[in-house]
Design goal:
2 domains, lyase activity, VOC_core, alpha+beta, 2,3-Dihydroxybiphenyl 1,2-Dioxygenase, domain 1, 9 strands, dioxygenase, 40% strand, Glyas_Fos-R_dOase_dom, globular
C-alpha cells in the first residue's frame, strides 16, 4: 500500500496555492507546513500526510514514494532486499522521530535514482 508520495517543486507558494485549490474537492487539506533548512515542506492529506511538496531540490530530483508496512521487520527486509537487488542506500532502517514518534523507515535509491521508502507507523 502507498503511504505517501513526495514531489519537489520550483515555486512553493505557487504550488501551495494550486494544490490547496485542486485537492480541496477531493477532501484533502493542508495538514502541516514547516521549514526544513532553507526549504519549505507542505503536507496534504485527509487524516494524515499522504501527499507532500517541498522546494528542497530541483523538481524531479528527490521525488519519492513510500510504501506502508505492518511491521518494522518488513522495513528491515525491504532495505536488505533492495540493496541486494542493486539499490543504493539512502538511509538504513531506523526511527525517524522528526517525522513522528513511531515513524520507522528505510530509504533506497532505485536503479534510476528515485528515492523509495518503506515505513512502519506501528509502535514496536
Amino acid at each position: 500500500m502507498i503511504d505517501h508520495l513526495g514531489l519537489d517543486v520550483s515555486d512553493i507558494a505557487r504550488s501551495r496555492a494550486f494544490y490547496n485549490a485542486a485537492l480541496e474537492p477531493l477532501g484533502y487539506r493542508l495538514i502541516q507546513e514547516f521549514p526544513d533548512g532553507d526549504a519549505t515542506v507542505v503536507m496534504y492529506g485527509i487524516e494524515s500526510p499522504e501527499f507532500i511538496i517541498a522546494d528542497k531540490d530541483r523538481p524531479g530530483e528527490a521525488n519519492h514514494i513510500a510504501f506502508r508496512t505492518e511491521t518494522r521487520a518488513q522495513v528491515d527486509a525491504f532495505h536488505a532486499a533492495a540493496l541486494a537487488a542493486g539499490g543504493r542506500d539512502n538511509g538504513g532502517p531506523g526511527l525517524r522521530p522528526n517525522y513522528g514518534p513511531t515513524y520507522y523507515a528505510a530509504f533506497v535509491h532505485d536503479p534510476d535514482g528515485f528515492n523509495v521508502e518503506a515505513v512502519c507507523h506501528a509502535a514496536e
